[in-house]
Specification:
Blueprint: H1 8-59, E1 65-66, E2 81-82, H2 85-88, H3 103-118, H4 121-127, E3 135-137, E4 144-146, E5 155-157, H5 165-172, H6 179-184, H7 196-201, E6 210-213, H8 225-228, H9 236-244, E7 249-250
Parallel strand pairs: 1-2
Antiparallel strand pairs: 3-4, 5-6, 6-7
């Protein structure tokens, strides 16, 4: 019996089918892996929320955030997390703060929050339940940070200070309902002043702080650019920043203007 060999065309067809199947398998594997990583970071953010709640129970109040020196030059409150000077200078609807370019400012806020929570035994116990791969120091450092599966630090976005019409009116020297004040008041209606971190990542709803991961691309971008510049096209850099923010993962659904 004579055995017929495969023709070149038949071999090419078989190889093509194998390549297509391999590509489909790889695509499915990547999708499954990405889904598992997103679940991991959501689990981490949930534990951080629980740790924050335990801190608040122990303190009998929410964790506070704001500038030590308010616009009239008089410290109005001893905030748990001082607002970095560079962020305070960009209050209101400033679009200047981009976390990818100035991560130290955002990291400083998260560092204060971690230290506060680790000082409360109940909060510390919850944070220590985070996977050690995601709660560890950076190479060459001693302090533990919270990381996402894509090796980027998780950040905290705090709510701004309470909006005070009398205080802000004195600071601005303008009528109470001036545009300046409207810009500083958080559009979510939670009675706080919008801060620069909220401008970049989205408003803290109901004055509740939230935690955020940069997502699989490791880039923070800027979530609110499309809304702020809704009446005009974004230029190349702005469009890129808006696109980079689409995969950010937050501990709850944040308030976006518009």
């Amino acid at each position: 019996m004579i055995r017929r060999a495969f023709t070149l065309i038949e071999m090419m067809v078989v190889i093509t089918i194998i390549v297509i199947l391999a590509g489909l398998t790889l695509g499915i594997s990547n999708s499954v892996l990405r889904g598992a990583e997103i679940r991991q970071v959501k689990d981490t953010l949930t534990l951080l929320e629980m740790a924050m709640e335990e801190w608040e129970l122990a303190a009998t109040r929410q964790m506070t955030y704001g500038a030590i020196d308010e616009p009239n030059g008089i410290p109005t409150y001893n905030y748990d997390i001082p607002e970095p000077t560079s962020l305070n200078e960009q209050a209101g609807l400033s679009m200047a703060f981009i976390p990818d370019d100035e991560p130290d400012d955002a990291n400083e806020v998260m560092r204060n929050a971690i230290d506060r929570m680790m000082a409360v035994p109940e909060s510390r116990a919850i944070i220590e339940r985070i996977d050690p791969d995601f709660f560890r120091p950076e190479e060459g450092q001693l302090e533990n940070w919270i990381w996402d599966p894509w090796d980027t630090r998780v950040l905290l976005v705090p709510a701004g200070r309470d909006f005070n019409p009398a205080f802000d009116r004195i600071a601005s020297g303008m009528p109470e309902e001036s545009q300046w004040q409207a810009d500083r008041r958080d559009p979510s209606g939670d009675g706080t002043v919008r801060n620069s971190l909220e401008n970049a990542f989205g408003g803290a709803a109901n004055a509740r702080p939230y935690f955020v991961s940069a997502g699989p691309d490791g880039r923070w971008g800027h979530r609110q650019l499309k809304t702020v510049y809704a009446d005009m096209p974004l230029d190349g850099d702005e469009a890129e920043l808006a696109a980079e923010a689409t995969d950010n993962v937050t501990s709850y659904e944040v308030y976006l203007d518009g």
